[in-house]
Write a structure and sequence with these properties.
single chain; 378 residues; alpha/beta; 7-stranded parallel beta sheet; 6-stranded parallel beta sheet
């Protein structure tokens, strides 16, 4: 099929929304479809730059569409749909309810991917109109918890033939043949101590305060924070120095291609989410999230210690992770020490995590999204 993907994310970018959109498109292309991604912006994008930023192998086109921010993306949506029509796309894949509805009005089959609650006055209206469109359609939601939230908002249950749960995914090939923790730390010139490692942004709700407190009370464990925007890294460097903590390493931004090696350097991989999680676009995703790092962590095959958030149980369980109450320093410290002193349990948790990762590849996700939609390209 010729699949036109329409995303409001800026590309290239290091935001989770941008990475997720590109990975979804890449998976569609890897299945043999002809894919063109439309995103806001100006100028051409070199494929070589995208390959380096996102680690891609199956090529697809990306076109920037100029838009006026004051028009709240409506001109971007209209221009993208017109470009898709001129290209004679068989299917529209989008993250915008307005776009999916307008595609339906044009008689074009569509897939709408939803990551958050419907907001504003028009968000629920466009979503409701989309559900009533006649052409073949598919609704993807990242968690069952989000499905429940949306059904409450819409006061209706979704047709199981239309709605599919599609958690985020991982490229397993990036996690093949990783070195053991000692070799990984040696390659990265990290301290050769038992290591608890975190990757991701330092946004509010990500548990950075907890990580600093843990480092303060567990001086024999090395804590490595991978990522963070430069301003955020600078703020935390000052806090850590002021507290006199010496066992935290802040790497700053790390290219995506190097992330698996850093994750392999951790004896334990941490997801210390709080009960309210802010994303790059704001809001609180603690009830409905599907963190991409969770799938990377699974594929790494290391012990995962995570906050006890109900939505995370859709993927994690007592066989592939350890759960601790959010912000409970004592509980987290106990969990870390138990793994430090229990290599047999650590190996069991890590092996199960690696096995479970195979269920969550971007390619499998794309196949599920297209199930029953292939006829559109006939």
């Amino acid at each position: 099929m010729k699949i036109a993907c329409i995303s409001p994310s800026l590309i290239p970018s290091t935001t989770a929304n941008s990475i997720q959109a590109v990975k979804a498109c890449h998976a569609l292309a890897s299945l043999g479809h002809t894919v063109r991604l439309y995103s806001p912006g100006e100028g051409d994008i070199r494929w070589e730059d995208l390959t380096e930023a996102y680690e891609l192998s199956s090529p697809f086109e990306i076109s920037h569409i100029q838009s006026n921010p004051s028009l709240k993306r409506y001109d971007f949506i209209w221009k993208s749909l017109q470009a898709s029509s001129n290209w004679q796309a068989d299917l529209i894949y989008t993250w915008l309810s307005q776009c999916a509805w307008l595609a339906g009005q044009r008689g074009i089959p569509s897939i709408l991917e939803i990551h958050d609650r419907l907001t504003g006055n028009m968000g629920p209206w466009f979503f409701r109109q989309y559900l009533q469109t006649k052409p073949l359609k598919r609704l993807l939601v990242i968690t069952r918890a989000l499905q429940n939230v949306l059904e409450r908002q819409m006061h209706r249950a979704f047709d199981p033939e239309v709605m599919k749960i599609a958690p985020n995914g991982v490229d397993l090939e990036r996690y093949q043949n990783l070195p053991d923790v000692t070799a990984a730390r040696a390659q990265l010139d990290l301290p050769q101590h038992f290591t608890a490692l975190y990757t991701g942004h330092f946004y509010a709700g990500r548990g950075m305060d907890l990580l600093m407190q843990l480092a303060g009370c567990l001086p024999d464990i090395s804590f490595v924070w991978v990522g963070g925007k430069p301003d955020d890294v600078s703020v935390w460097q000052k806090k850590i120095k002021s507290a006199g903590i010496l066992n935290i390493v802040l790497t700053g931004f790390v290219p995506k291609m190097k992330l698996p090696l850093y994750q392999a350097a951790g004896d334990v991989l941490l997801m210390p989410y709080e009960t309210a999680i802010a994303g790059s676009s704001g809001g609180n995703s603690a009830e409905i999230c599907s963190p991409m790092k969770m799938f990377d962590y699974l594929a790494t095959g290391r012990v995962i210690i995570t906050s006890e958030l109900p939505v995370l149980h859709e993927v994690l369980n007592a066989k592939n992770a350890i759960f601790c109450p959010p912000a409970d320093v004592e509980a987290w410290a106990t969990a870390l020490q138990s793994i430090q002193q229990g290599p047999v349990r650590a190996a069991s948790l890590g092996n199960q995590a690696r096995q479970d990762a195979s269920h969550y590849t971007w390619r499998n996700r794309a196949q599920q999204a297209l199930q029953g939609m292939e006829e559109t390209g006939a």
